[in-house]
Design a protein that fits this description.
The protein is an alpha/beta fold and 224 residues long. It contains seven helices and nine strands; from the N terminus they run βββααββαβαααβαββ. The protein has helices at residues 40-48, 50-60, 84-89, 107-114, 120-133, 150-162, 180-195, and strands at 2-11, 14-24, 29-33, 66-74, 77-78, 92-95, 168-172, 200-205, 217-220. It has a five-stranded parallel beta sheet with strand order 6-7-8-3-9, with helices on both faces. β1 and β2 form a beta hairpin. It is globular and about 50 Å long.
Length: 224
């Protein structure tokens, strides 16, 4: 499904990701574990294509700070330089760290916004799936997202990613800063979306212990 070969990302002369290679097969949950500043978020940005957007913005400013080497191959096609919007259409979706939500909009409005590229019936199906996966959000659907707890915001962020029906879901530190109970809730949900919906998952985390029981394989990133 996904084959990453010798991926390197430089920010000017600093190496953010150094010669990283890994594979992801259909139906797997693959873990990528490493300390802060090890390169996990850079990897997620490279896989999702956000790094390409960052690169374009730098060029418009007249600079060339970001350099990418290596290959990202998805279902037999090289997508290393493909835009993030095209990757979403191919089924690659990123749920970023720090709960990227719209705080002034309600939970339900956030879910609808996430599906702006989908047809109405697809949005309804996605919302139903998100509520099935995270029943706690049903009672909160009219509440402004900015007033949710950290765990509730993370549920919403993952629910928003699911609206576009990903084949490959990239989760960047979804357990960050959450209580053990909420971590368990999210881990159970990740297993459910993998087993029941057949969504392949790449899960980046700082600590291995919470994710080790549920991943099929794991990779360690240290200093890029």
């Amino acid at each position: 499904m996904l084959d990453v070969k010798n991926l390197m990302v430089f920010f000017e002369n600093a190496i953010a990701l150094n010669d990283f290679s890994f594979q992801v097969n259909d139906g797997e949950i693959v873990g990528v574990v490493g300390p802060n500043s090890a390169g996990k978020t850079t990897l997620m940005n490279a896989l999702s294509g956000l790094i390409i957007d960052m690169q374009v913005k730098e060029r418009r400013k007249g600079g060339e700070r970001i350099t990418i080497y290596g290959n990202i191959v998805y279902r037999g096609r090289d997508i290393t330089k493909t835009k993030p919007s095209e990757r979403v259409k191919r089924g690659i979706v990123l749920s970023r760290e720090r709960h990227p939500i719209f705080p002034e909009s309600s939970v339900l409005e956030n879910l609808k916004i996430a599906g702006y590229l989908r047809r109405k019936h697809e949005i309804r199906e996605g919302i139903d799936f998100a509520f099935q996966l995270f029943p706690a959000l049903v009672a909160l659907k009219k509440k402004k997202a900015g007033f949710l707890s950290g765990g509730e915001q993370q549920m919403l962020a993952i629910g928003m990613a699911l609206i576009v029906k990903p084949e490959l879901l990239l989760l960047d530190e979804p357990l960050l800063g959450l209580s053990p109970m909420m971590q368990n809730t999210l881990i159970d949900a990740i297993v459910s979306l993998n087993k029941q919906a057949g969504i392949t998952v790449v899960l980046c985390e700082q600590f291995a212990r919470p994710v080790f029981p549920v991943i099929d394989r794991g990779y360690i990133v240290e200093n890029g």
